[in-house]
Structures are given as C-alpha cells and as structure tokens.
Amino acid sequence: MPRPILATINTAALAHNLARMRSAAPDARIWAIVKANAYGHGIERAFEGLRSADGFALLDLTEAQRLRALDWRGPILLLEGCFDARDLELCSRLNLWHVVHCNEQIDMLAAHKTQVPHRVFLKMNSGMNRLGFTPQRYRAAWTRLIALPQVEEISLMTHFSDADGPKGVAAQLAAFYAVTHDLPGERSFSNSAGALRHGHELAARSDWIRPGIAVYGSSPDFPTKSAADWGLQPAMTLASKIIGLQTLQAGDTVGYGSSFTADGPLRIGVVACGYADGYPRHCTTGTPVLVGGVRTRMVGRVSMDMITIDLTPVPVAGMGSEVTLWGRSTAGTVLAVDEVARAGGTVAYELMCALAQRVPVVVET
To answer: Which residues pair with 188 in a beta bridge?
Structure first.
C-alpha cells in the first residue's frame, strides 16, 4: 500500500474562483495566471477548471508550449517577456504575446526578423520598483516600440505593490494615467487584491485583469479577509492519515528538540506528512489541522516525514483516520491554506508551489 498522503486538485473550485474574479471586474477580460506550474497545481491538471479564461499568463516558454499542446488557441502572455533574442522565434511560432519592460527587450525586437508582427505589453514601473519603465521614460519606450515594423499592437500595463494593504492603488493609478491617458491600446492591471478590494476605483479602467492567488482559493489580503469572506473555494487539498498513536503523561515530550511538553494526559496521532512533502517546517505547536473534519492542532516540530497532532477534540480518531492539512475534508469542513501558511510564517503561495514531487496528485471535478 502506498504512503497515505494525497493532494487533490478540484477543477470545479478553480472554475468557481475564476467566475468569482470575473464578477469582481465584469467589464474586463481575465488572464488566468498559471506561472510556477499553475501555482503548484499543475497546468495540465488545472486547465479544465480555467479554460473559460480569456487568456493565460505565465513566465516560461516551456509552460506556454504545454498550453498549446492542450489545444489552447487563445492568448498567452509572457509576464516577464523574452529573456533572449532567440525566444522571439518561439513567440512568433506559438503566437505568444509578451511583456516589454526594458530597453534591451526593445533592442531584441528591433533586430528580430519576422513576417508576423508581435503583440506586446509595455510595462510601467509605477511604484513596485521591480520590472518596467519609470513614468519619466515610459513614453520614450512607447515611441520606440510603435516605430518598429516587428510590433503590431502595444498594450499598456503596470503592477500594484500595495493592493492588499492600506496604501491601496490610487497613487500608482495616478502615476500610470498621468503618462498614458492619451496613448492608444488596451490597459492591464489588477492582481487578485486589486480586483477584489479596489474594483470601485478600477471599474471600466482595465481591459484585462490578472488574478493569481485568488483563482486557487487563497485570500489575497488574509487575515484582513479570509477566502470564505471573498467567496473563494480551495482548489488544492492536502490530506493524509494517522499512522501511529501515542499516549503521553504530564511531562512527556514530543519530537525533535522536545519542543512540546504535555501538561497532563494526552493522546496524540502521528500523521504521514512532513517538510519533505512540502508542509512548512516552521509550523509549530498550535498550527491547525482537521481530523475527520474536526479542528485540532499540531504539537511539536515538523519532521521530514511526520507531524504529530493533538487528538483531544476527536477521541474517536484512530489508525487510518483522515487528516486534512489544508483544503476541504471529506466531511466538508474547510481549513484555509492561508491559516497554515500564517502559522508557518509564510504565505499560501509558497505552500502551494512547494508541494513535493513525491506527493501523489489526483484531479476531481
């Protein structure tokens, strides 16, 4: 019998979350962000749930090839553009749209020999200070691009740094529109937090939104609002079973470093899941888990292959009982991945993307 850990990808939840994002920006088209192998869910596994998107956005050419192999004929956008001049040949062959965020990428386009001009998204650095042209240099970049025969159409884009916090998007929007107000072309901004939290500011101003984490069922501004508050459903469930039982007395300790000490009689379960499966090593005593759909807590340290959990709230639990590490239990109870991530001092993105290859994955609809 294989080790009883399993990740389940729910395509109905993906479709629900995508529809939820569409309702947040009903006048805009949607890029479904599938970078990092669809946030660890797997492009091929997630595709059916996301195929109602207007386009897919990602980073790697190999991931774009995988989408085309799935017979996706709609738009695909390379969010960081081309890394090498040779990448433009594949963009032409696969009909990929790509971001231009620096002069070197314009130089590559200018030297590119093609019979099919490219659709590009010119990125402004409106305050994130990662990729993009500053507002002062943006129009000069647009002027260079529009003069190239290799360019068919230019869309305009920026990325919000504080859509999930109190600073909001107003300053970046002002910087963006001060420069682009009279330029032709479609506009693209709004990550998950931008669309959900600032739809009133962005209504009718963005032709494309780019939701990522919310599509996979995580809240973009947790703990201010939970995924349930936003009407999102978990797309990934990580579950295992109890493979061992121990009964502790007062003063007994659990696991490496004896970091947890029982203050009285305590029954614990040993679960087949550890940091080698992608469970965050920095989770500590108190991290929530579900046993048979009932909420309880982890105790002690996370090991490579096991965690230990307090069975006090679930006295009927025993060998083989279902343990939900995050996602939806078979009883229907949901443990948000955001809660587990917070307990581990990280974010849900990391947990999803860190799911280990050794964990078997199934797809349910």
So the answer is: 157, 208
Classify strands 253-254 and 288-291 as parallel, antiparallel or unpaired. Answer: unpaired
- Residue 258 neighbours by CB under 8 Å, 6+ apart: none
Fold of 11-216: TIM Barrel (3.20.20)
- Following DSSP, what letter does each residue of 304-334 receive, concatenated? SS-EEEE-TT-TT--TT-EEEEEEE-TTS-E
pTM given for the model: 0.95
What stretch(es) of the chain map to CATH 2.40.37.10? 236-364
| Residues in Cβ contact with 45 at an 8 Å cutoff, skipping those fewer than 6 apart | 9, 11, 38, 361, 363
DSSP state of 258: G
Task: Give the residue among 12, 16, 11, 18 at the shortest CA–CA distance from 54.
Answer: 18
Distance CA 299, CA 246 (A): 12
Dist CA 354 CA 41 (whole Å): 10
Q: Which CATH number, 3.40.1260.10, 3.40.50.300, 2.60.300.12, 2.40.37.10, labels domain 236-364?
A: 2.40.37.10
Contact 97, 75 (CB under 8 A): yes
Residues 6+ apart with CB under 8 A from 98: 77, 78, 81, 82, 91, 118, 119, 120, 121
pLDDT along the chain (365 residues), means of 10: 95 98 93 98 98 97 98 98 96 97 98 93 97 98 97 97 93 94 94 90 81 97 97 98 98 96 97 98 97 98 98 97 98 98 97 97 96
Q: Which residues are catalytic?
A: 35, 256
Amino acid residing at 3:
R
User: What number of other Cβ atoms are within 10 A of residue 138's Cβ?
Assistant: 24
